Amino acid sequence: MKKFILFFSLLVAGALTGQAQDTTNGNSGKSGFGLRGGASLFNWSGEDISSNDYTNRVGFHAGVFANSFVGDRFSIEPGLYYSVKGTQNDDLVNSRAVLNYLDLPVLFRFYATEGVNFFAGPQASLLLGSTFEADALGNTYGWETDAINDLDAGLVVGLGYNLPVGLNLQASYDLGLTPVFKDTDADVYNRGFKLSAGISF
Q1: In total, how many domains does the chain have?
Q2: Exposure string (b/e) for 36-57, b if CB count within 10 Å is 16 or more?
């Protein structure tokens, strides 16, 4: 299943990139592909963690995207990103969950001006690895876990701004809709903010 989703996403990105070479937009520049990355601030959210001291954990994300205009003010942008999520717990051993994902968003952008755009869309996140870590006696200890769901489906919403010479900035929020843990009814979800900088070609 993972290989199929990855293959399908690469096909979509390749098709849009090929189309983008000859498509231009009068308001917001031209279609194309690019690189984007930045900082992430994630936590676990849900009714079943209200009694725990979970806090935001800083991670990062980086990857590629293809942006294809379908009108003067609208574009479709699939992407492929490596993303580090998880949570932090303010306990005696500074325990934390480190979850590594391959994010596959498909964003629909509306360009209000040449620079300002709003976007939203679905996202499938494939789990690449998951570990729990803790600090004790000056050392960091980690152990792998298979308790995390392999697929995290969710939504992405955000605000972007296009700068000259192909540069862009954006802030977004990831709303995870699939429980973090498998084989349980625990109401726990991956949710967090991303601040990104990118360049289009």
Answers
A1: 1
A2: bbbebebbbbbebbeeeebeeb
Angle at 127 between CA 124 and CA 131, to 5 degrees: 145
Residues 20-41 pLDDT 10s? 444 444 344 567 899 999 999 9
Query: Could you give the CA distance from residue 54 to residue 52 in angstroms, rounded to a whole number?
Result: 6
How far is residue 119's CA from residue 41's CA, in Å, rounded to a whole number?
Answer: 19
Print the domain residue range for 11: 2-200
Structure tokens at 181: 């843990």
Collect contacts of 93-96 with beta carbons under 8 A, ≥24 apart: 93/134, 93/135, 93/136, 94/134, 94/135, 95/132, 95/133, 95/134, 96/57, 96/132, 96/133, 96/134
Q: What is the CATH number of the domain that holds 161?
A: 2.40.160.20
Q: Which residue has the tokens 């592909």?
A: 33
Which residue blocks in 136-187 are alpha helix, DSSP H?
A: none
Strand 74-89 and strand 29-30: the pairing is unpaired
pLDDT digit string, tens, across residues 130-155:
998 888 767 777 788 888 999 999 99
